[in-house]
């Protein structure tokens, strides 16, 4: 049985669709890096949760690529249910796809996992059903495996996991992501992308209040819109009016107020 392939480089710009973007070490990023280090070294279960668009997946992905690029196994089912979860895990481990029975596939999964320590990364974990979670827990409990598990979920994922006693007792690390504070926005935007260098500091809170509201994904989307607008129109320069118009355009309003 072949080992799982090395994880591909985490392409920050490609993930955000913003060429030139950089990950900024906010408090949430630094806390996540610390907790992930603890989870990997101690073979623990970690839960990362918070609102949509706050940077959970990005931060976890970049950090795991730095800490354990060859040991991280992304498990991202395309559907719901145990069959989709098994398939995603087998794919992440490079298990041959011609194994038709669950028994053969499970044996192959165990054989690869037993070769060395692994970190199983489950993004959008709020979608996992009970059978998939039971399967994942059974893997974690095996004494012949050395697994770390990172569950990344949005919305009320923390509440759902706390309502499962078997998981509540196993999750040792909880990391919460929230929208950026006004001070964090001001500190982050200039470091995130050079396109904001021309923006006066007084403009940033106005832009945030107008449409981004501390949401990292919203700021990333606006950054890309501003970057493209300036690149496609050489005579155009940064202005607050331009950015506010781009925000309106992103929200479905194509004309001026």
* Share of β-strand residues: 5-15%
Q: What does the radius of gyration come to?
A: 21 Å
C-alpha geometry: elongated
Number of strands: 5
Output the CATH homologous superfamily of the largest domain. Answer: P-loop containing nucleotide triphosphate hydrolases
Low-confidence stretches: none
N-to-C series of helices and strands: HHEHEHHEHEHHEHHHH
**Given the structure, what is the number of helices?**
12
Q: List the domain count as a whole number.
A: 2
Tell me what the CATH architecture of the largest domain is: 3-Layer(aba) Sandwich
CATH topology of the largest domain: Rossmann fold
Strand line-up in the sheet with most strands = 2-3-4-1-5
| CATH C-level class of the largest domain | Alpha Beta
As a percent range, the share of helical residues equals 40-55%
Mean pLDDT: 90
Pfam families: AAA_22 (PF13401)
Keywords: ATP-binding, Nucleotide-binding
GO molecular function: ATP binding
Protein name: ATP-binding protein
């Amino acid at each position: 049985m072949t080992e799982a392939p090395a994880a591909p480089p985490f392409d920050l710009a490609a993930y955000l669709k913003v060429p030139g973007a950089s990950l900024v070490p906010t408090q949430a990023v630094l806390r996540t890096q610390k907790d992930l280090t603890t989870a990997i070294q101690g073979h623990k279960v970690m839960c990362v949760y918070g609102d949509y668009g706050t940077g959970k997946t990005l931060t976890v992905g970049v950090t795991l690529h730095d800490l354990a690029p060859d040991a991280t196994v992304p498990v991202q089912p395309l559907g719901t249910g145990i069959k989709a979860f098994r398939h995603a895990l087998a794919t992440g481990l490079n298990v041959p796809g011609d194994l038709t029975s669950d028994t053969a596939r499970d044996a192959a999964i165990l054989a690869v996992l037993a070769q060395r320590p692994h970190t199983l990364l489950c993004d959008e974990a709020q979608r996992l059903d009970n059978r998939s979670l039971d399967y994942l827990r059974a893997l974690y409990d095996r004494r012949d495996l050395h697994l770390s598990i990172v569950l990344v979920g949005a919305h009320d994922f923390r509440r759902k996991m706390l309502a499962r006693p078997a998981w509540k007792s196993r999750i040792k690390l909880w990391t919460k992501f929230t929208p950026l504070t006004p001070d964090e926005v001001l500190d982050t935007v200039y470091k995130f992308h050079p396109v904001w260098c021309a923006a006066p500091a007084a403009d940033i809170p106005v832009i945030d209040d107008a449409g981004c509201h501390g949401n990292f994904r919203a700021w990333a989307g606006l950054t890309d819109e501003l970057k493209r607008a300036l690149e496609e129109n050489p005579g155009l320069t940064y202005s607050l009016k331009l950015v506010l118009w781009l925000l309106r355009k992103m929200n479905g309003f194509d004309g001026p107020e």
